[in-house]
Amino acid sequence: MKPIEQYDNQHLIDPQGRSIGYLRLSLTPACPMRCSYCRPEVIDDLPNQNTLNVNQIETLVRHLVEHWGLHKVRLTGGEPTVRRDLLQIIERLSTIDSLTDLAMTTNGLTLARDAQALHDAGLRRINISLDSLRTETFENMTGIKGLPRVIQGIHAAMESGLTPIKINTVVLAGDNADQLPELVQFAAERDLEIRFIELMPMGPLANQWAERYVPESQMRDALSTVISHWQPLEQKHDSARCFRVHLRNGQHVTIGFITPMSCNFCDACNRLRLTASGDIYPCLMDQPRGNIMSAFAGKFDPIHFDTLLQQSLKDKAEEHPINGFTTMTILGG
Ligand code: SAM
Predict the structure, then answer these.
(1) Whose CA is nearest to atom 25 of ligand 1?
(2) Domain span including residue 55
(3) Which of 126, 203, 310, 323 is 20 to 30 A from 229 in CA distance terms?
(4) Would you list the DSSP string of 91-149?
C-alpha cells in the first residue's frame, strides 16, 4: 500500500478502467413510505451497527474529494429527510471545495416545510419520487396517504431555488403503467424533468418481477399518444437516457428512462455506494464489499480507509448481477 500522498490528485479507477467520481450515500435505512417495490414488511438485515455521524460523513467525503477526485455526492436512503442532522450534513458538505455537485433523492413528504432550508444549507439539486397523480394508485404504490403533501413539496422545491428538479417514477404493470401521459403533462406544465424507472428485481417485488416489469420500449409506446417528436440528448455518466420531447399540445419537456434491465449503463458507471452503517457497495445490485467503520475506530485513518476502498473496488462488477442482493431502502437507490 502506497502512502496516501502518492494518491494525491489521482482518481479511483476500477479494474475495468472506470473512473469513480460519484458517491451515493445512504443516510438511513428508515423511511415512512412503504413502497410496494422497495421496502419489505420486515427488514431482516437492518443494520444495527453505528450509523455514520455528521463528522464522519464530512471527513470521508472531504477525503474522497481531496485525494481521489470525487466531484459528486447524492444523499439518499431510506429517506434522507428522516435524519435530524440533515441540514448540518448538507452545510458541512457544501463547504468542501471541488465538490461540484451535491444532490439528494427524497420522497418529497417534508419538502413543503423544508425545501427552502435545504437550499439555503447548500443543497443544489433534488430528485423527488412521484409514482402517480391519482390518490388510489399513489396509496397502493407507496403504502401511505401522502399525495397532496408530495405535490406541495414539489411546488415548495420549485420556489426554493433548487434546480434542476427531477421527478422519479418507478413504472409498474398493473399500477401506474397506464398513467405516464398525465405524469409527463404534470412535468411539462412545471418545467420539471421526469424520469421513468424500470423495475429492478430487488426488494419485495423481486419474485413478481416478470409480471410487473415494463421495459422502456413499452413506456415509449404508451407515451406516443401525447408525444410527437423525440430529440435524444447527449450525456456521459447519467444513468438515464434522456430526450427533449415535443408534446402534441405544443409543450416541451425532458424525459429520461432509467433502464437497468433492458439496456444497462454499467460500462459508464462512475458510482460508489455507502450505506448509513458504512457498508461499501461498488455496484447497486451486487453484495457489499467491505465496511469503512474500522477506519473511524479512533482518529480517522486515511490509509486504512483507502485500503478498504481499493479492496472493494477490485470487486466492482463489470455488469450488475441479474438479481439485487439487498433492498434499496438500505442501500439507497
Ligand atoms: N426515499 C427516497 C425516495 O423515495 O426517492 C430515496 C430512496 S429510494 C430507495 C430511491 C429510488 O429508488 C426511488 O426513486 C425509488 O423509486 C427507487 N427504487 C426503489 N426500489 C426500486 C426497484 N425495485 N426498482 C427500481 N427502482 C426502485
Answers:
(1) 199
(2) 12-331
(3) 126
(4) HHHHT-TT--EEEEEE-STTHHHHHHHHHHHT--EEEEE---SSHHHHHHHHSSS-HHH
Q: Is residue 81 part of a domain?
A: yes
Query: How do beta strands 227-232 and 240-247 pair?
Result: antiparallel
Query: How many structural domains does the chain have?
Result: 1
Calculate how far, in angstroms, residue 300's C-alpha sits from the geometric centre of ligand 1.
Answer: 31
39 alpha carbon – ligand 1 mean position (Å): 9
Q: Is residue 247 assigned to a domain?
A: yes
Cell reading at 187 = 412535468
Give rounded-to-5 percent helix, strand, coil for the chain. Answer: 35, 20, 45
Q: How far apart are CA 281 and CA 278, in angstroms?
A: 9
Helices (H), the chain: 54-68, 86-94, 111-121, 135-142, 147-160, 180-190, 209-212, 216-223, 302-314, 328-331
Report which ligand 1 atom has the smallest distance to the Cα of 127: 5
157 conformational bin, left if phi > 0, alpha if psi -120 to 50, beta if neither: alpha
- pLDDT tens digits for range 24-58: 999 999 999 999 999 877 655 555 568 999 999 99
CATH number for position 210: 3.20.20.70
1 assigned to some structural domain: no
Domain-located, residue 3 = no
What's the grid cell of residue 96?
Answer: 468542501
Q: Which residues of the chain have pLDDT under 50?
A: 1-8
The residue whose CA has the least distance to atom 21 of ligand 1 is: 38
